[in-house]
TrEMBL record:
Pfam families: DUF11. Residues 1-18 form the signal peptide. This is Putative repeat protein (TIGR01451 family). The lineage of its organism: Bacteria, Bacillati, Actinomycetota, Actinomycetes, Pseudonocardiales. The chain crosses the membrane at residues 162-179. Keywords: Membrane, Signal, Transmembrane, Transmembrane helix. The keyword Signal applies. It comes from Actinokineospora auranticolor. Residues 32-117 form the DUF11 domain.
Length: 200
């Protein structure tokens, strides 16, 4: 599982202080976000279930937030709970979060067969105050894509190649030891036989 979350620089800055005769400027929402998925790799036909978690770390209500999740190349969006709006290469939701509250969304995508040889599929989730506004906070998840045929065996062999190599060397060492022991035993028997003949 690969999941990252970060706050934009605007959120970390101190909110502006209104001077005399100036209107108060609303501070940007203080949020955190995460994208979780138990799978680190997948093949064609596998379903990827993501959990998006958006938290309000501030002390005021946050309303009309636009939460989006990208649908990476090689994946097909299937369902979401709660339901979202799928358009182009992404899915979006409009959410309200009270202070210290959170919104949790589950989305499901299917890995498609592809000849492009794409090594990974990365999805990005972001929250913003408006469709065209810059993101306030984003998170991502990346999974390795593997081929369908023989992928499980190849993947296992690749992950355990050092153990396999060690096993081969161990067997070779045992075989060499057995050969040497047998050779020594045969040599000792020959020497004993020659000694008996000399005595006669």
């Amino acid at each position: 599982m690969i999941a990252t979350a970060f706050l934009s620089a605007a959120l970390l800055a101190s909110p502006p202080v209104a001077g005399e005769g100036e209107a108060n400027v609303a501070a940007a929402p203080v949020l955190s976000i995460s994208v979780d998925n138990a799978r680190a790799d997948a093949a064609a036909g596998d379903r990827m279930t993501y959990t998006l978690r958006l938290r309000n770390l501030g002390t005021v209500d946050v309303t009309d937030l636009r939460l989006t999740q990208s649908v990476p190349a090689g994946l097909r969006f299937d369902t979401a709970e709660p339901a979202g709006t799928a358009a182009g290469s992404g899915v979006s939701w409009q959410v309200d979060i009270e202070p210290a509250g959170e919104t949790v969304i589950h989305s499901t995508m299917t890995v498609l067969e592809s000849d492009a040889g794409q090594p990974r599929a990365a999805t990005v989730a972001c929250a913003r105050t408006a469709d065209e506004a810059p993101p306030l906070v984003c998170a991502s998840h990346s999974a390795r894509l593997r081929g369908e045929a023989g992928s499980a065996d190849d993947s296992w062999a690749n992950r355990n190649r050092w153990y396999l190599a060690g096993g081969v060397f161990l067997l070779a060492g045992i075989a060499l030891f057995v050969v040497r022991v047998r050779g020594s035993a045969i040599g000792a028997d020959d020497a004993a036989g020659n000694g008996n003949e000399d005595n006669h």
